[in-house]
Amino acid sequence: MTDKSTPCCGPATPAIDEAVKKDTLRREVSEAYANVANAETAGESAGVEGSCCGVSDDASINTLISSRLGYSKADMGIVPKGADLGLGCGNPKAIAALKAGEIVVDLGSGAGFDCFLAAAEVGTTGHVIGVDMTPDMISKARGNAAKGSYSQVEFRLGEIEHLPVADNTADVIVSNCVINLSPDKPQVFREAFRILKQNGRLAISDVVATIELPEEMRNDKALIAGCMGNAALISDLEKAMADAGFVDIQIAPKDESRDFIKDWAPGSGVEDYVLSATIEARKPSAGCC
Questions:
Q1: How far is it, in rounded angstroms, from Cα 102 to Cα 123?
Q2: CA nearest 249: which of 283, 275, 276, 273?
Q3: Tell me: the pLDDT tens digits for 236-262?
Q4: Right CATH number for 14-282 from 3.40.50.300, 3.40.50.150, 3.30.930.10, 1.10.287.40?
Q5: Tens of pLDDT, residues 206-227
Protein backbone atom coordinates (compact mmCIF):
# COMPACT_ATOMS: atom_id res chain seq x y z
CA MET A 1 0.00 0.00 0.00
CA THR A 2 1.33 3.37 -0.99
CA ASP A 3 2.08 5.82 1.81
CA LYS A 4 -0.01 8.79 0.74
CA SER A 5 1.81 11.04 3.21
CA THR A 6 4.95 10.84 1.05
CA PRO A 7 4.18 11.89 -2.53
CA CYS A 8 6.32 10.27 -5.23
CA CYS A 9 6.98 13.53 -7.02
CA GLY A 10 7.29 16.37 -4.54
CA PRO A 11 8.59 19.87 -5.19
CA ALA A 12 12.16 20.28 -6.35
CA THR A 13 14.71 20.76 -3.60
CA PRO A 14 17.24 23.61 -3.63
CA ALA A 15 19.98 21.07 -4.42
CA ILE A 16 18.07 19.79 -7.46
CA ASP A 17 17.33 23.34 -8.62
CA GLU A 18 21.03 24.21 -8.36
CA ALA A 19 22.05 21.08 -10.28
CA VAL A 20 19.59 21.90 -13.06
CA LYS A 21 20.88 25.47 -13.20
CA LYS A 22 24.48 24.25 -13.52
CA ASP A 23 23.62 21.76 -16.24
CA THR A 24 21.71 24.42 -18.15
CA LEU A 25 24.69 26.76 -17.98
CA ARG A 26 27.06 24.05 -19.20
CA ARG A 27 24.76 23.23 -22.11
CA GLU A 28 24.41 26.87 -23.14
CA VAL A 29 28.18 27.40 -23.01
CA SER A 30 28.84 24.20 -24.94
CA GLU A 31 26.37 25.23 -27.63
CA ALA A 32 28.00 28.65 -27.93
CA TYR A 33 31.45 27.12 -28.43
CA ALA A 34 30.12 24.52 -30.85
CA ASN A 35 28.91 27.47 -32.91
CA VAL A 36 32.41 28.95 -32.75
CA ALA A 37 34.02 25.73 -33.95
CA ASN A 38 31.53 25.20 -36.74
CA ALA A 39 31.55 28.83 -37.87
CA GLU A 40 35.33 28.85 -38.23
CA THR A 41 35.19 25.64 -40.24
CA ALA A 42 32.54 27.14 -42.50
CA GLY A 43 34.44 30.42 -42.86
CA GLU A 44 31.81 32.45 -41.04
CA SER A 45 31.71 34.74 -38.02
CA ALA A 46 30.28 33.34 -34.78
CA GLY A 47 30.33 36.47 -32.71
CA VAL A 48 31.83 39.88 -32.17
CA GLU A 49 35.31 39.97 -33.61
CA GLY A 50 37.68 40.38 -30.71
CA SER A 51 35.40 38.71 -28.21
CA CYS A 52 36.42 35.83 -25.98
CA CYS A 53 33.80 33.73 -27.77
CA GLY A 54 33.99 35.39 -31.17
CA VAL A 55 35.75 34.15 -34.27
CA SER A 56 36.45 35.59 -37.66
CA ASP A 57 37.00 33.90 -40.99
CA ASP A 58 39.84 36.38 -41.50
CA ALA A 59 43.04 34.85 -40.09
CA SER A 60 44.64 38.30 -39.88
CA ILE A 61 41.93 39.42 -37.44
CA ASN A 62 42.46 36.37 -35.25
CA THR A 63 46.19 37.06 -35.34
CA LEU A 64 45.59 40.65 -34.22
CA ILE A 65 43.38 39.44 -31.37
CA SER A 66 45.97 36.91 -30.20
CA SER A 67 48.68 39.57 -30.36
CA ARG A 68 46.65 41.71 -27.95
CA LEU A 69 46.48 38.73 -25.60
CA GLY A 70 50.26 38.38 -25.41
CA TYR A 71 51.12 35.84 -28.09
CA SER A 72 54.08 36.45 -30.38
CA LYS A 73 54.16 36.13 -34.15
CA ALA A 74 56.43 33.13 -33.63
CA ASP A 75 53.75 31.49 -31.44
CA MET A 76 51.10 31.99 -34.07
CA GLY A 77 53.37 30.84 -36.85
CA ILE A 78 54.07 27.35 -35.50
CA VAL A 79 50.50 26.12 -34.95
CA PRO A 80 48.34 24.47 -37.63
CA LYS A 81 45.98 26.70 -39.58
CA GLY A 82 42.65 26.77 -37.79
CA ALA A 83 44.08 26.24 -34.30
CA ASP A 84 44.13 29.96 -33.45
CA LEU A 85 40.52 31.05 -33.17
CA GLY A 86 41.36 34.37 -31.54
CA LEU A 87 39.92 33.13 -28.25
CA GLY A 88 41.23 33.59 -24.72
CA CYS A 89 42.16 36.45 -22.44
CA GLY A 90 45.91 36.00 -22.07
CA ASN A 91 48.83 33.67 -22.72
CA PRO A 92 49.22 30.98 -20.05
CA LYS A 93 52.40 29.68 -21.68
CA ALA A 94 54.09 32.95 -20.73
CA ILE A 95 53.86 32.05 -17.03
CA ALA A 96 54.01 28.24 -17.25
CA ALA A 97 57.82 27.95 -17.59
CA LEU A 98 57.38 24.60 -19.35
CA LYS A 99 60.31 22.20 -19.56
CA ALA A 100 61.18 19.39 -21.92
CA GLY A 101 59.61 16.10 -20.89
CA GLU A 102 56.80 17.58 -18.77
CA ILE A 103 53.19 16.43 -18.90
CA VAL A 104 50.74 19.29 -19.46
CA VAL A 105 46.95 19.30 -19.19
CA ASP A 106 44.99 22.12 -20.81
CA LEU A 107 41.56 22.79 -19.28
CA GLY A 108 39.17 23.86 -22.04
CA SER A 109 41.54 23.24 -24.93
CA GLY A 110 39.29 24.45 -27.76
CA ALA A 111 40.87 23.97 -31.19
CA GLY A 112 44.22 23.15 -29.59
CA PHE A 113 46.14 26.43 -29.85
CA ASP A 114 47.69 26.40 -26.36
CA CYS A 115 48.23 22.63 -26.51
CA PHE A 116 50.33 22.95 -29.66
CA LEU A 117 52.36 25.79 -28.15
CA ALA A 118 52.93 23.65 -25.04
CA ALA A 119 54.00 20.73 -27.25
CA ALA A 120 56.74 22.87 -28.73
CA GLU A 121 58.04 23.53 -25.21
CA VAL A 122 57.85 19.99 -23.76
CA GLY A 123 59.11 18.32 -26.92
CA THR A 124 58.60 14.75 -28.06
CA THR A 125 59.60 13.43 -24.63
CA GLY A 126 56.72 15.33 -23.04
CA HIS A 127 52.98 14.90 -23.39
CA VAL A 128 50.04 17.31 -23.69
CA ILE A 129 46.42 16.44 -22.91
CA GLY A 130 43.68 18.83 -23.96
CA VAL A 131 40.27 18.49 -22.29
CA ASP A 132 37.13 20.12 -23.69
CA MET A 133 33.42 19.47 -23.13
CA THR A 134 32.37 20.41 -26.69
CA PRO A 135 32.53 17.52 -29.18
CA ASP A 136 32.86 19.90 -32.13
CA MET A 137 35.95 21.49 -30.57
CA ILE A 138 37.48 18.09 -29.79
CA SER A 139 36.95 17.02 -33.40
CA LYS A 140 38.50 20.23 -34.67
CA ALA A 141 41.48 19.95 -32.31
CA ARG A 142 42.16 16.34 -33.30
CA GLY A 143 42.08 17.34 -36.94
CA ASN A 144 44.57 20.13 -36.25
CA ALA A 145 46.84 17.70 -34.37
CA ALA A 146 46.82 15.37 -37.36
CA LYS A 147 47.63 18.24 -39.72
CA GLY A 148 50.57 19.25 -37.55
CA SER A 149 51.75 15.68 -36.84
CA TYR A 150 51.68 16.26 -33.08
CA SER A 151 52.28 12.74 -31.80
CA GLN A 152 52.67 13.96 -28.18
CA VAL A 153 49.30 15.75 -28.08
CA GLU A 154 45.90 14.14 -27.43
CA PHE A 155 42.43 15.53 -26.86
CA ARG A 156 39.83 14.08 -24.49
CA LEU A 157 36.15 14.90 -24.25
CA GLY A 158 35.15 15.82 -20.71
CA GLU A 159 34.10 18.50 -18.27
CA ILE A 160 36.75 20.38 -16.33
CA GLU A 161 34.78 19.64 -13.15
CA HIS A 162 35.24 15.91 -13.85
CA LEU A 163 38.54 15.52 -15.66
CA PRO A 164 39.15 12.32 -17.66
CA VAL A 165 42.71 12.20 -16.31
CA ALA A 166 44.25 9.90 -13.68
CA ASP A 167 45.46 11.08 -10.27
CA ASN A 168 48.98 12.57 -10.05
CA THR A 169 49.44 12.80 -13.82
CA ALA A 170 50.33 16.38 -14.71
CA ASP A 171 53.39 18.48 -14.04
CA VAL A 172 51.54 21.60 -15.19
CA ILE A 173 47.93 22.60 -15.76
CA VAL A 174 47.27 25.47 -18.15
CA SER A 175 43.96 27.09 -19.04
CA ASN A 176 42.93 30.14 -21.01
CA CYS A 177 39.69 31.96 -20.19
CA VAL A 178 37.71 28.80 -19.39
CA ILE A 179 37.40 28.35 -15.61
CA ASN A 180 35.26 31.51 -15.42
CA LEU A 181 32.65 29.62 -17.47
CA SER A 182 32.33 26.83 -14.91
CA PRO A 183 29.27 26.85 -12.63
CA ASP A 184 31.32 24.99 -9.96
CA LYS A 185 34.76 26.54 -9.72
CA PRO A 186 35.71 24.92 -6.37
CA GLN A 187 35.19 21.52 -8.01
CA VAL A 188 37.44 22.56 -10.91
CA PHE A 189 40.26 23.31 -8.48
CA ARG A 190 39.69 20.10 -6.55
CA GLU A 191 40.02 18.18 -9.81
CA ALA A 192 43.09 20.18 -10.82
CA PHE A 193 44.69 19.35 -7.47
CA ARG A 194 43.85 15.66 -7.90
CA ILE A 195 45.50 15.26 -11.29
CA LEU A 196 48.63 17.28 -10.48
CA LYS A 197 51.79 15.59 -9.27
CA GLN A 198 53.39 16.81 -6.04
CA ASN A 199 54.91 20.22 -6.68
CA GLY A 200 52.85 20.43 -9.88
CA ARG A 201 51.75 23.91 -10.80
CA LEU A 202 48.87 25.92 -12.23
CA ALA A 203 49.47 28.49 -14.98
CA ILE A 204 46.14 30.06 -15.88
CA SER A 205 44.90 33.12 -17.73
CA ASP A 206 41.30 33.92 -16.88
CA VAL A 207 38.75 36.65 -16.29
CA VAL A 208 38.14 37.58 -12.66
CA ALA A 209 35.71 39.95 -10.97
CA THR A 210 37.34 42.82 -9.12
CA ILE A 211 33.98 43.81 -7.61
CA GLU A 212 30.66 41.96 -7.50
CA LEU A 213 28.79 42.07 -10.81
CA PRO A 214 25.21 43.39 -10.85
CA GLU A 215 22.54 40.68 -11.00
CA GLU A 216 21.54 41.63 -14.55
CA MET A 217 25.08 40.96 -15.74
CA ARG A 218 25.21 37.68 -13.81
CA ASN A 219 22.07 36.56 -15.67
CA ASP A 220 23.07 37.80 -19.13
CA LYS A 221 23.61 34.70 -21.30
CA ALA A 222 25.79 36.59 -23.78
CA LEU A 223 28.06 37.92 -21.03
CA ILE A 224 28.29 34.46 -19.46
CA ALA A 225 29.23 32.72 -22.71
CA GLY A 226 31.54 35.65 -23.44
CA CYS A 227 33.65 34.88 -20.33
CA MET A 228 32.45 37.82 -18.25
CA GLY A 229 29.08 37.25 -16.58
CA ASN A 230 30.15 34.23 -14.52
CA ALA A 231 33.56 35.54 -13.42
CA ALA A 232 34.34 34.91 -9.75
CA LEU A 233 35.63 37.44 -7.25
CA ILE A 234 39.37 37.18 -6.61
CA SER A 235 38.79 36.45 -2.94
CA ASP A 236 36.43 33.57 -3.83
CA LEU A 237 38.98 32.08 -6.20
CA GLU A 238 41.73 32.32 -3.60
CA LYS A 239 39.53 30.53 -1.07
CA ALA A 240 38.53 27.80 -3.54
CA MET A 241 42.17 27.16 -4.41
CA ALA A 242 43.33 27.13 -0.80
CA ASP A 243 40.46 24.82 0.19
CA ALA A 244 41.50 22.46 -2.60
CA GLY A 245 45.00 22.32 -1.08
CA PHE A 246 47.00 24.69 -3.25
CA VAL A 247 49.80 26.86 -1.89
CA ASP A 248 51.79 29.82 -3.26
CA ILE A 249 48.58 31.22 -4.73
CA GLN A 250 49.02 34.36 -6.84
CA ILE A 251 46.24 36.14 -8.74
CA ALA A 252 47.40 39.20 -10.64
CA PRO A 253 44.75 41.27 -12.48
CA LYS A 254 45.96 43.19 -15.54
CA ASP A 255 44.60 46.72 -15.76
CA GLU A 256 45.53 46.93 -19.43
CA SER A 257 43.05 44.16 -20.22
CA ARG A 258 40.21 46.62 -19.61
CA ASP A 259 40.67 47.89 -23.18
CA PHE A 260 40.02 44.58 -24.92
CA ILE A 261 37.31 43.49 -22.47
CA LYS A 262 35.49 46.70 -23.35
CA ASP A 263 35.53 45.52 -26.97
CA TRP A 264 33.97 42.17 -25.99
CA ALA A 265 30.69 43.81 -24.93
CA PRO A 266 30.64 47.42 -26.14
CA GLY A 267 28.44 49.73 -24.11
CA SER A 268 27.75 47.23 -21.34
CA GLY A 269 30.21 48.70 -18.84
CA VAL A 270 31.34 45.20 -17.84
CA GLU A 271 34.97 46.32 -18.03
CA ASP A 272 34.35 48.21 -14.77
CA TYR A 273 33.75 44.88 -13.02
CA VAL A 274 36.09 42.30 -14.57
CA LEU A 275 39.68 42.05 -15.72
CA SER A 276 41.94 39.42 -17.20
CA ALA A 277 44.37 37.98 -14.66
CA THR A 278 47.18 35.48 -14.34
CA ILE A 279 46.50 32.76 -11.78
CA GLU A 280 49.34 30.68 -10.37
CA ALA A 281 49.56 28.11 -7.59
CA ARG A 282 51.35 24.90 -6.60
CA LYS A 283 50.40 21.51 -5.22
CA PRO A 284 52.72 20.96 -2.23
CA SER A 285 54.82 17.92 -1.51
CA ALA A 286 53.31 15.29 0.75
CA GLY A 287 53.43 16.44 4.36
CA CYS A 288 54.31 19.99 3.31
CA CYS A 289 52.58 23.10 4.61
A1: 9
A2: 283
A3: 999 999 999 999 999 999 999 998 899
A4: 3.40.50.150
A5: 999 999 999 999 999 889 888 9
